[in-house]
Design a protein that fits this description.
Elements (H helix, E strand, L loop, with lengths): L10 E6 L2 H11 L3 E6 L4 E6 L2 E7 L21 E5 L5 H10 L8 E5 L2 E9 L5 E5 L6
Pfam family, one: Glyoxalase
Protein name: Catechol 2,3-dioxygenase
Keywords: Lyase
C-alpha cells in the first residue's frame, strides 16, 4: 500500500532555446508570474496557479544535461495542460492573436476535473500547451 496520494502537478520543467523570449511568452501571454530566478543555473521559476512552470535555458548548466534542444521532431513532452478560468473561447483567441500566437478552436476534451472545452497552442519553443476550461460534465 502506498504511503501517499497524488494531489496535483507541482511543476513542469521546460528546456527552452531563448529564456527571455519564453519568459515574455509565459508572463505576458499566459499570465504567469516570476517566483524566483536562478541565473546561475539558467532557470526561472514561474507561478501557474497553484503549480509552477520552470524554464531552463538549453545552454545553461542544467539545460546542457538534456542534450540538443527540442523541436518539431524532438519533443521533451507531448503537452502541458493549464487549467484556466474563465474559459471564454473568443476572448482567449483574441488575446492570443494579439500576442501573435495561433491556437485551434476549442473542443471538448477529458481532463482532471472531467470533460470540458480546451484548445491547443505552441509556446516559442514548439512545446504544445493545452488551455483547459472547467468541466461541464464529470
Amino acid at each position: 500500500m502506498r504511503s501517499f496520494t497524488l494531489q496535483r502537478i507541482d511543476h513542469v520543467v521546460l528546456r527552452v532555446k531563448d529564456i527571455e523570449r519564453s519568459l515574455a511568452f509565459y508572463t505576458s501571454v499566459l499570465g504567469c508570474d516570476v517566483k524566483k530566478r536562478r541565473d546561475d543555473l539558467g532557470m526561472i521559476h514561474l507561478s501557474a496557479g497553484t503549480s509552477m512552470i520552470d524554464l531552463v535555458d538549453v545552454n545553461g548548466p542544467i539545460g546542457r544535461q538534456g542534450g540538443e534542444p527540442a523541436g518539431k521532431q524532438r519533443h521533451n513532452v507531448d503537452h502541458v495542460c493549464l487549467r484556466v478560468e474563465p474559459f471564454d473561447e473568443q476572448a482567449i483567441l483574441q488575446h492570443l492573436a494579439a500576442a501573435g500566437v495561433s491556437a485551434e478552436a476549442a473542443v471538448m476534451r477529458y481532463g482532471a476535473e472531467g470533460t470540458g472545452l480546451s484548445m491547443y497552442l505552441n509556446d516559442p519553443d514548439d512545446n504544445q500547451i493545452e488551455l483547459k476550461g472547467p468541466a461541464v460534465q464529470a
